[in-house]
DNA sequence: GATGAATGAGAGTTCATTCAT
DNA sequence: GATGAATGAACTCTCATTCAT
């Protein structure tokens, strides 16, 4: 699963003709963009860290922004992955009995992904507001499509009386918000790689599910 | 309340000797930092937007970073404000009967603050990961102190059996996470000034409270 | 007359706010563009020759091309000058008895101009084919307008039976061609500042006039 | 005659071992140098237009300048061609009765040459001022030798009273100037491939001959 | 012979900052 | 206090050239 999720492997295996140098450039860029931000990282620094000439970067990526987009764009496909039709169908065909189970399955699935790609994710989150090329497809393809699929799932469980009867949009926002908020709080405030993440994630799941428990008072 | 919360007024009234030009510099810098990011905004651009000479900026702020810190630092005092001892005591002395009420009071209080200072808040969120001068006092003074105070509040309501008996840290994280996540989702994805924010915030509050409802199953 | 014709004075007096450094930049750029060509001259070289920092160039001229255009554009107004309506009217009102006299007046008038601005003229000639921004207004304003006025003059003398009855366009092309060809041959082949230019120019005039003598055989 | 004059054929047939790729490189380089200038054309652009790898250029020509010189040097031999001793002897042995006939013969002979090699000629004219390697042999071998031969021709007709008794140098300069000026005016100002060139050239010839008509007034 | 990845010097340009006015 | 010309370091990016394959 690690390999399947790892953005490096995705990036670098997809396209067969990837040089060793190109790999080192991507690696260095990811590290430095995550650490200092895209705008505050110079191509000179990247080249030095990657152990290549500065010109080499521009042989593979036409501009610095190109490099950023090459790193960050696959994120979207990956984020969206578990919501691709066949997967959701799979979910629906062998349905989790409870929303709780569905949620746990999704989060555990994404958890590995976030762990593996925490740096790329940081960059993604940081740069999205400043690049329309990133923002527009993100809203169009990720937010909208995931919302649609997710809405179906939510309705599925709402019809079974398992979760609260708020508008699906609000339910989704709440669910996502807690998850994303959790991840961002990690990266913005603590940037820690230690800590008992599993337990905290489990608590988070519990709170979400509790929050969505159908009202009976 | 608006005035009391507005960071500009805070910034600009505190220090009596604030010239018209200085005000325009701050205003321009806030707009541009929020729009394009700190690193991608040049002092030249700020000067032009503010209608002052580039040198004037450096007469008031020794470096560009100084300007950033001057804009963003008061945020911390402001964020922390409602949790300052006397205020919490006030809360506790005339206690809200339910955690729900406490939460709503806090959020309504902060809501105006976020609305008024959305741009400064954006900058704050964006730049915190890259500036230790910002990050350290934020964790030390904001996160830690607010957590401590908040923990007392949480315990207060836990003792009264109103909210779930998870570790206060988890309860706080959940509460904050939902709120912060909500705001960030606004700013990252939609950056919209329209929309029925009041209703969405109320839904969010409902979900938080529900999520923290003590288990009885 | 020298002052009136000198492009530097034109350039630098027109706009009152011209720094000493700016003057040195223009001077250095003209020398180096003429010597090595625009594309083969680096802004670094110009800065060094001018004794200023490289950044200073870009404070005054937004791009290197801007610098070129600033040097070369006034050429057009200057070239066109003697053909501006009032001047031609003046010529026609106190008409030169012979085309020969008109020609000599024009050439003597331009001679000083070419001498004084030989370097700018070199640059102009060299760069015109590669810059549409230069080429289009040159054809539109210089070639066309001068041709129109010149055609009137030619017809004037043709009607008086002084010059050959070829289409004015051909007469003009011939006259201009000889003059321009003369100057270019100087600059391309000899780039000499010595030599008995006056006599050679007089011979050139003689040959033009002779060539245009009405056929009587 | 076309083949005899075409510089490509000259260039490419001379040396038997000219690959297809080499041909494409020369072709591409000529087009781009003529269009954008030597200094403003990158070897990368040439390689792309030629459909070869950048390295291939340097396999055939050690430097970019080498490529230029290889394109442009044969021009000299070609320009000089009709004045090479045996040819002039041929001219003198079967002498044209009038200078007019000689001139027309030369120009018609050169006309085809210019048409066929207009691009190489453009490059030649453009680059001569900036490359001593080009300029010196041009003056030494082309200008001087052609002048000498031409002077003999001029004296030949002057002795027969057919052309004006100015110094041969002036006569030559005038003749050449009109022709070169004509071509340059085409390339600098109009770069047109349409238009009735034949007629215009004939007019030009007429004007030259007329200009050189011995004075009889 | 041909390739194209790699280079590092140097291109034009922008930058935060200084300082004389 | 305010200016804006000046700076030079640093930026992104391009260049002609090399060389292992």
From TrEMBL, chains A, B, C, D:
PROSITE patterns: HTH_TETR_2 (PS50977). It comes from the Bacteria. InterPro entries: Homeodomain-like_sf (IPR009057), HTH-type_Tx_Regulator (IPR050624), HTH_TetR (IPR001647), Tet_transcr_reg_TetR-rel_C_sf (IPR036271). The keyword DNA-binding applies. Residues 19-79 form the HTH tetR-type domain. Gene3D superfamilies: Homeodomain-like, Tetracycline Repressor, domain 2. Residues 42-61 bind DNA. Keywords: DNA-binding, Repressor. PANTHER family: ACREF/ENVCD OPERON REPRESSOR-RELATED, ACREF_ENVCD OPERON REPRESSOR-RELATED. This is TetR/AcrR family transcriptional regulator. It comes from Bacillus spongiae.
């Amino acid at each position: 699963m690690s390999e399947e999720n790892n953005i490096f492997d995705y990036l670098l295996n997809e396209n067969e003709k990837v040089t060793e140098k190109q790999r080192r450039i991507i690696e260095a860029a990811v590290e430095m963009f995550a650490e200092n931000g895209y705008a505050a990282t110079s191509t000179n620094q990247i080249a030095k860290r990657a152990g290549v000439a500065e010109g080499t970067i521009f042989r593979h990526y036409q501009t610095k922004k190109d490099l950023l987009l090459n790193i960050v764009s696959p994120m979207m496909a990956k984020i969206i992955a578990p919501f691709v039709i066949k997967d959701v169908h799979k979910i629906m065909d062998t349905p989790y009995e409870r929303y709780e189970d569905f949620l746990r399955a999704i989060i555990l699935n994404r958890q590995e992904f976030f762990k593996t790609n925490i740096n790329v994710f940081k960059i993604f989150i940081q740069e999205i507001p400043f690049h329309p090329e990133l923002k527009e497809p993100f809203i169009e393809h990720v937010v909208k499509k995931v919302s649609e699929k997710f809405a179906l799932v939510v309705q599925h469980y709402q019809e079974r009386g398992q979760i609260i009867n708020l508008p699906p949009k609000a339910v989704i926002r709440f669910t996502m918000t807690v998850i994303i908020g959790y991840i961002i709080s990690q990266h913005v405030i603590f940037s820690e790689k230690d800590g008992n993440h599993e337990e905290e994630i489990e608590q988070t799941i519990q709170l979400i599910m509790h929050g969505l428990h159908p009202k009976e008072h």
